[in-house]
Amino acid sequence: MTDIASAWTTLGGDPALLSRMTTDERPGALPARLPVRQLARACVGACALAAAELAARRAGLAEVPAVRVDDGAVAAAFQSERQLLVDGRAPVVFAPLSRWWRTADGWVRTHANYPHHRARLLGALDLPQDASAAKAAALLAERPALAVEEAVYGAGGLAVALRTPKEWAATEQAAEVTARPLVERERLDASHTRVLPPLAPGAAPLLPAAGLRVLDLTRVLAGPVATRTLALLGADVLRVDAPWLPELPDQHADTGFGKRSTTLDLTGDRDTFEELLASADVVVTGYRPGALDRFGLSPEALIARRPGLVVAQVSAWGAYGPWGARRGFDSLVQVATGIAVTEGSTEEPGALPAQALDHGTGFLLAAAVLRALTERSYDGGGRSVRLALARTAHWLTDGIRPTPADGTPYEGPDAWLAETDGPLGRLRHALPPVAFAGGPEGWAAPPVPWGSSPARWR
Questions:
Q1: CA–CA separation, 229 vs 67, rounded Å?
Q2: Residues with Cβ < 8 Å from 110, sequence gap 6 or more?
Q3: Which listed residue (126, 216, 358, 406) is catalytic?
Q4: What integer is the mean pLDDT of 215-244?
């Protein structure tokens, strides 16, 4: 329970509530050299406890409901995008140009799942847009890894040179990351206007986020995991995307459970957005730091217009340091921070058994929102919470000690998978791992087509 206690403490939770939690350990789940299973269990456990705490607060319960965390459910959820089947079809997790490449002096990893990132990558390499992977490989083999990283980032693309843990620790960005807490929390106003209403007497299941409105301005993967969790817990989650930036269909299917999806141009449709904001309880953003500030969507600007709001932000590298404005994804953070070296071999780099930085940070972000809502229920004040994949990576590599597991060996995810029919087809998907006595066992609705919902609250 030490790692769960660490996460719970950084969320500002009452240590006495940890006695309400039990865990089912399953050796063999999420196997890795680094303590991925412990990190995953801690993130989900902290989220489940935060949900149970808020449920007790809103329902007027004398005791926080018991929380149970099962390594099997956690492992399946942390690989949800890999477990997904759409009408029997397995998704493509990485595009052809999202991969490792040998360079003149090492390795570099690129991310080009989105068409605009692919176009920028090829442009940075002076390759035509129809260039093959073989042509890119031949060119990259002649260039230094750091030179590729800088050229691609300079063009607005994504590429990261492989670093050892020691090399990462020597960077200015690593120093900035390690100087921050795992979860950054701040109260941004002194209003007393946003006290939560109680849940209906005898409500079943207990939905701690029932009646809450969440504006979801996120993209793969940590942010959508957080808002998918809030939807599970009863929130009205409205995902908002720019009309010209569609989400990858399989990613949308995986993370869209319980949500609705709309499109807005934040310039041309500004009045519509402000109407949504006027009755929102939570705004979650997942774009690189500063990208939304020009639209008046910084935490300070949002709370100035909507006192008592909870604003949650997630980014790859953190909103600070020389990499603060860089784009990033889980796979690239693993490369930069030395995780790929730790998990690799002498022949080639490796990877974690799941996009654990994304999923772990997503569950922690949801937990931070739930704890902020509990705190707000006492004083009504608006709050900001902020997490970064790179800071979660530091916790994994330097903050969690591997421990032997007792319990029933993990025999695969089948016991924690289900099938659901909906407008996107028949989906095989992972069940939610966040569980507490009396709480929900699944989402109220399957994913809807991207951009198909009206831009209004239920």
A1: 16
A2: 97, 98, 99, 101, 121, 152, 157, 158, 159
A3: 358
A4: 97
| CA–CA dist 54, 58 (Å, integer) | 6
Q: What is the mean pLDDT of the chain?
A: 96
- pLDDT tens column, 350-360: 999 999 999 99
d(CA 319, CA 18): 31
Q: pTM for the complete prediction?
A: 0.97
CB–CB of 355/334 below 8 Å?
A: no
Phi, psi of 310 (to 5 degrees): -105, 120
CA 184/CA 51 separation, integer angstroms? 19
Distance from CA of residue 403 to its chain's centroid?
25
Asked if residue 1 has pLDDT above 80, the reply is no
- DSSP for 236-295? EEEEEE-TTSPPPHHHHHHH-TT-EEEE--TTTTHHHHHHHHTT-SEEEE-SPTTTTGGG
Name the helix (H) or strand (E) containing 57: helix 36-59
Known active-site residue 421: no
Q: How far apart are CA 377 and CA 451, in angstroms?
A: 33
- DSSP class of 396: I
